[in-house]
Amino acid sequence: MSATRPGRPPTAPSGPTPTPSGPTGAGRAVKVSQRAGPEPDAAPAALLTGVGVGPGEADLLTVRAVRVLREADLVVVPVMDRPGADGDAPAGRAEATVRAYVPAERLHRLPFALDDTGGVTARREAAWDAAAAAVVAAFDGGARSVAFATIGDPNVYSTFGYLAQSVRALRPTVQVRSVPGITAMQDLAARSGVPLCEGREPLTLLPATAGAALVEDALAGPGTVVVYKGWRRHPELIEALRRHGRLADAVLGRSLGLPDERIGPLDGADDDLPYLSTLLVPARRDRRGGKL
Ligand SMILES: C[S@@+](CC[C@H](N)C(=O)[O-])C[C@H]1O[C@@H](n2cnc3c(N)ncnc32)[C@H](O)[C@@H]1O
């Protein structure tokens, strides 16, 4: 993997970081966070940045995401470590999105067990270890800034967290940052015209893989429910929605931002969903501002 770009100044991906404050146990407000990392003119020698690239369209990235991708010495993208059984797995989605901004010679594919199930499997661990070793090798080869492009947001059900942990385990001096991305949940809300939450409504995001009980709990509550990773569990989800009287309002977003995108109610013909499908169940609302 060639990663060095001699003569380029190192870059700091993050702009000014807010310094949120919150109550302590003693009721005193304290500053809980300063800028995470050094100032821009003291960029770290090795920086790994998870960059959220949105659900799939090349114009749904933040300005900062584009800047970090363009300035990185190397941009790595996750791909499937073997062909998916159904061909629908998301291999290459992040790659396709960033191609508009990053020339092929700065893109590097890293295989991950994206379709594996059953927890921390040997296949997953092997992929994380190999990917981390490749990133460390890039730093050893002279790269100062490596960006990992991931669909949606890097802190929402993303492989980035596992990669970052693995890289830090190998090389604790590597600094890790992230650039937020637009999630599939937000994109579906925007495209379907459904506000995610209003007034006192809770918003629950969960993967269907969390199990039927958690999905049922969320559907029994008063707020909006968003379900990721529901493709193989779609028939169970439909039954749960029916039991809770929430089937009619539910919106399904398939392949958001991709050529085969479909957004609409659950019409019963959805047995064969792509992996990139998101279910949005709006809070029950009976009047304007009713939850204020
Ligand atoms: C591993 S999670 C990645 C979530 C992503 N990091 C985010 O912030 O949206 C994969 C799930 O995200 C949802 N998803 C991501 N991209 C999508 C898209 N383009 N269309 C529909 N759903 C999508 C699907 O529910 C999919 O099963």
Word description of this protein:
By secondary structure, this protein is of the alpha/beta class. The protein has two domains: 43-182, Tetrapyrrole methylase, N-terminal domain (Cobalt-precorrin-4 Transmethylase, domain 1, 3-Layer(aba) Sandwich), CATH 3.40.1010; 185-281, Tetrapyrrole methylase, C-terminal domain (Methyltransferase, Cobalt-precorrin-4 Transmethylase, Domain 2, 2-Layer Sandwich), CATH 3.30.950.10. The protein is built from seven helices and twelve strands. It has helices at 63-71, 93-98, 122-140, 160-170, 184-192, 212-220, 234-243; strands at 21-23, 29-31, 47-52, 74-80, 107-112, 145-150, 175-179, 203-207, 224-228, 251-254, 262-265, 277-281. The strands form three sheets. A five-stranded parallel beta sheet has the order 5-4-6-3-7, sandwiched between helices. A five-stranded mixed beta sheet has the order 8-9-12-10-11, sandwiched between helices. The longest helix is centred in the middle third of the chain and has 19 residues, at 122-140. The relative contact order is 0.15.
Strand proportion: 15-25%
Could you say which structural class the secondary elements and strand pairing correspond to?
Answer: alpha/beta
Tell me the helix content.
Answer: 25-40%
Order of helices and strands: EEEHEHEHEHEHEHEHEEE
* Major sheet summary line: 5 strands, parallel
Radius of gyration: 21 Å
Distance between the ends = 55 Å
Q: What is the highest CATH level, the class of the largest domain? A: Alpha Beta
Bound molecules: S-adenosylmethionine
Low-confidence blocks of residues: 2-33, 86-91
Put simply, the count of helices is 7
Mean pLDDT over all positions: 85
**Widest β-sheet, arrangement of strands:** 5-4-6-3-7
CATH superfamily of the largest domain: Tetrapyrrole methylase, N-terminal domain
Overall structural domain count? 2
Tell how many strands the DSSP assignment holds. Answer: 12
